[in-house]
Amino acid sequence: MKAKQLADRQALNVDTVRYYTRIGLLTPSTDPNNGYKAYSLADEKRLQFIIQAKSLGFSLQDIEAFIAESKLGHSACPTVREIMKQRIAETQAKIKTMQTTCNKMQNALATWQTLPDCNPTGDHVCHLIEGLIEEESDHV
Q1: DSSP assignment of 30-98, as one string?
Q2: Are residues 129 and 118 in contact, defined by beta-carbon separation less than 8 angstroms?
Q3: Spatial distance between the Cα atoms of 54 and 77, rounded to a whole number of angstroms
Q4: Does some domain include residue 135?
Q5: 119 lies in a domain?
Q6: Model confidence over 8-58: pLDDT tens digits?
Q7: Which parts of the sequence belong to the HTH merR-type domain (predicted)?
Q8: 83-92 confidence digits (pLDDT tens)
Q9: Judging by beta carbons within 10 Å of its beta carbon (0-12, 13-18, 19+), is residue 120 exposed, middle or buried?
Q10: How many separate domains does the chain show?
Q11: Which domain CATH number covers 70?
């Protein structure tokens, strides 16, 4: 099948299939008559693997490493587990940071609800934000 057909079957943009081919994640054969790439069912299965791995948070670089392990006849599973542990820790840290930011935003908005609007001056842009700066520097 051609790149467009493969892309359609997996609900992807054809440029994504071409990109994965260009970086070596997909290795279709080339039709000697017209130079078109011919994708097999094995290529489709590989593409499904790539899509699933990406949905789990793995990068294309991670996926390349998994495929390289497999091509060497080694199980990629230990590498997959180790990287997943790292990704979980990274994601949990991001969630914690985002939750802290969200709490700060909610507290700021609650405080700002009762404050009047002010006109900007040469030194001030928005007293709401500037007030937080002053408040935070008082706590340091």
Answers
A1: E-TTT--EE--HHHHHHHHHHHHHHHTT--HHHHHHHHHHHHTT--SHHHHHHHHHHHHHHHHHHHHHH
A2: no
A3: 16
A4: no
A5: no
A6: 999 999 999 999 999 999 999 998 888 889 999 999 999 999 999 999 999
A7: 1-69
A8: 999 999 999 9
A9: exposed
A10: 1
A11: 1.10.1660.10
